[in-house]
Structure formats: C-alpha cells, structure tokens
Amino acid sequence: MLDILKAVLYGIVEGITEWLPISSTGHLILLEKLIPFEHTSPGFFDMFDVVIQLGAILAVVFIYWKKLFPFAFSKKDREQNAGGGIVRKDIFLLWGKILVACVPAAVIGILFDDFFNEHFYNEVSVAVALIVFGIIFILVEKYIVSKGNVKASVISEITFMMALEIGIFQILAAAFPGTSRSGATIIGALLIGVSRQAAAEFTFYLAVPVMLGASLLKLLKFGFEFSPQEISTLLMGFFVSFAVSVVALRFFIGYIKKHDFKPFGWYRIALGIIVLLSAAFL
C-alpha cells in the first residue's frame, strides 16, 4: 500500500513537471532522495520512470489528437480537410517538421547517452542546469521576447529550418539532465522568433516521438519481469501521470496566453539551490 501511495505522488510530480519548463529530473531526484521506493526488484525504479513518462506522453496525444492525427476518415473530417481527401497534408507537413526537430537530439542521444548519464546525472550537475537555464529564461524574456520580434505566431508558420534550430537546442536537454526538455526547446523557439504559445505547443508535439522513442529503448533494456505488487505500482503511476498531465497541459497553455516565462525562471533558480543544499546536507 505504501508503494502505491508513493506511485501516486511520483505520478503527480511527473505529470506537472514534465510539461512546465522546470525540469522533471530535478524534482524526481529530490523526491527519490526524500521518499524512495524500498524493497523493490533491481531495475524497478528505472522502469517506473519509463511508465510515468508514457502516461505523460499519452496526455499530449489525448488533448491534441485532432491536431496530430494525419488522416480524415469520417465524412465530417474530410469535409473540413482543406485538400478534401483522406490525407491531411498540413498535419503530414507538421510531422515532417517534428521529425526534423528530433534528429539532432536523437543522434547525440544514441551516441553519447551512456556518457551523459555517467557524468552529468547527479545532483550537482542537475542543480547547475536548473539555475543556469532559470537565469537564461529570465534574460530571454527581458531582453529578447519583449522586443516583439515574432516570426512565427502559430505552429503552421514554423519553417523546417526553424524546426531544425529548435531541435539543436533540444540537444542541451539530452546532454544535461536538469535542463528540462521543454525548457530547452521553448528557449530555442523564443530565441528564433516563435511566439510563446506556438513554442509551447510545438514542444508538446515534439515530446511524443522523443519521449516515446526513449521509453521504448528503456523498455527493451529493462524488460518487464516484476511482481504483481510492482505491476500495480507501475499502473498507478502511469494513470496518475496521465491524468495530472492533462490538467497541467491545459493550465500551461491557458497561462502563457496572458503571462511570460519569468516565474518559471525564478522557480528553477530556487529549486536548483534546494537541490544543491540537499546534496550537501541530506
């Protein structure tokens, strides 16, 4: 029962922090130190991390299904399709941009994932990334976004070159845990002239193949041989992460329509300091 309650807590934290640019890694490191899973089999926590990420991914698919599914099978959908056929060319184009944006981080991740995990997946590195990118968020908002130089106010205006540039920024998240995948891609998008809302939505879309691919690789690596109690814990984390992610995604999109990202920058700095203190004293 205790592990089930922990799974609920972890699912809540993952569902919120995966989509806000505040680093799910930093939060989960703290949570794992304060409330670890005990008496579980080897590899359980790694699998649990994969499962709650899958729950978060499905929340994106659930909310944005109509914007991401490239086929119009029903009569109503075909009538609304600009091309009039089954294939929705605008969504196929969007997926092309998403895949282009995935390439840089995928290449770097495949080649150097073990190296990055060995050298940078620790509390100090995560804390530094939290603080540094918190400062960058504040500076980007203050000195660049405030000038109003928006080149792409909606998703459809993001070009393939812009998508590639956003993908290059995502390398930072692949290399340095604590950077925040959503944080890195949003900063990159803002710097090249994408509006806040379009940057956030493109980041959500980009998460689907990126996180799904990473999760599948881990599933193959760790397998799925766990006790019934452990499987119940995994399922609880999955469903809680999914439900909380749905709420967090809708909140975030509503929030950025009226506010900027500076509060997230200050929050990251505070969290980074807390992680450093925990590494020193806990």
Q: SS-based structural class? A: mainly alpha
Number of strands: 0
Topology as a string of helices (H) and strands (E)? HHHHHHHHHHHH
Tell me the major beta sheet: none
Helical segment tally?
12
* Fraction of residues in helix: over 70%
Q: What do the pLDDT scores average to?
A: 86
In the residues, how many domains can be counted? 1
Rg value: 19 Å
**Silhouette:** globular
Low-confidence stretches: none
Distance between the termini: 26 Å
Tell me the strand percentage band: under 5%
How would you sum up this structure, described in words?
The chain has 282 residues and is mainly alpha-helical. It has one domain (2-281). 76% of the residues lie in helices and 0% in strands. It has twelve helices and no strands. The protein has helices at residues 2-17, 24-34, 44-63, 65-68, 75-80, 89-120, 123-143, 160-175, 181-191, 196-222, 228-256, 262-281. It is globular. The mean pLDDT is 86.
